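Minimal example, chain plus NAP.
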Amino acid sequence: MLDLAIIGGGPAGLTAGLYATRGGLKDVVMFEKGLPGGQITQSSEIENYPGQAEVVTGMELMEKWPEQCKRFGLEHKMNEVKRVTKDNDIFTLILDDSSEIKAKSVLVATGSVPKAAGIKGEAEFFGKGVSTCATCDGFFYKNKDVAVVGGGDTAIEEAIFLANICKTVYLIHRRDTFRASPNEVEKLKKYDNIKLVLNHTTEEIIGDTMGVSGIIVKDKKSSEIKTLDVLGVFMFVGRNVLNQVLIQEDGKFLCDVNDSGEVMVDLKMKTSIDGLFAAGDIRIDAPKQVVCAAGDGAVAGISVIGYLQ
Ligand code: FAD
Ligand code: NAP
């Protein structure tokens, strides 16, 4: 019987583990299906984490977090949690190997995954020219032409990352103003090889057995259709929260969620179910920043200690 089971080993889960173990909880296990670190490990450049005076990659930022947690006794199990249920004040976690773990409290910190735009060719060519990670796949397109789709912080940052590797980066956005912070947008101007394709919708990603060969876009004003010859397409059109662990056998959520599936929490990261906490990108109104996810994790860790006392 665990004191606390943490699901997800991103900034929120790791920080909760640090606070819970350092605060005296003995049996705390973090279930992370991959390597700890979370989605930020896919980022090429972080410049807004407090105390980091130099720009660092996501990998560099997260490198020491698991080691620090381990020092205070946090255990990491490399499992995917399939479902969490609650019966008579005790939680049960069902793991990917069908084993079951009992816990007195649970923190859900499963974050989010890239959204699909739903355009023709996107799923067909995924992994064969279509990617959602520039840090992982950018190098395959060294000195080649690629397209980036989206107008948020991720699209702008990763377009800049790709511009340092690729010959041309077409940045395709459906509006003529960006959702990204003005500071990021300003940086685009320094790159002659980033070609803005604004007010255009993406119609189809085309290719053959060798992979992607182009992307078809449509001018929203003139309705003109054109094909951009690219070998890679990077899709950064937002993210969906990963709340599947909370879905029960009857299809209902274990706790209250909003229309977007984000978990409702109070200021102590408590959900509508006693002993169940949520932190980071998965919660309502998350600012989707590493520092905020870590802050949520700290609050959740402290709240769990109070709950168990
Ligand atoms: P995540 O980081 O998503 O971690 C969740 C973890 O849970 C993952 O490791 C996942 O594998 C695991 N998991 C999910 N489901 C299960 C399951 N069922 N069982 C076991 N494990 C599971 N923020 C900034 O502050 N500055 C930036 O510059 C910045 N740049 C970014 C660039 C990119 C490309 C991206 C994608 C994000 C960026 N962000 C940035 C946002 C930041 O990464 C997130 O806000 C933050 O990582 C959220 O942390 P989290 O712990 O809530 O979730
Ligand atoms: P986002 O902010 O939701 O932006 C998604 C972009 O994709 C928007 O520009 C949107 O267009 C566009 N889009 C959505 N659906 C589309 C579709 N079907 N076809 C074409 N375009 C589509 O997502 P994000 O950039 O991944 O960022 C997610 C969160 O992480 C944000 O809160 C962000 O601030 C944060 N983040 C922060 C940093 C940082 O602090 N440096 C870096 C990365 C991410 P519209 O604008 O028209 O809606």
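The two ends are 16 Å apart (CA to CA). The first strand starts at residue 2 and ends at 7.
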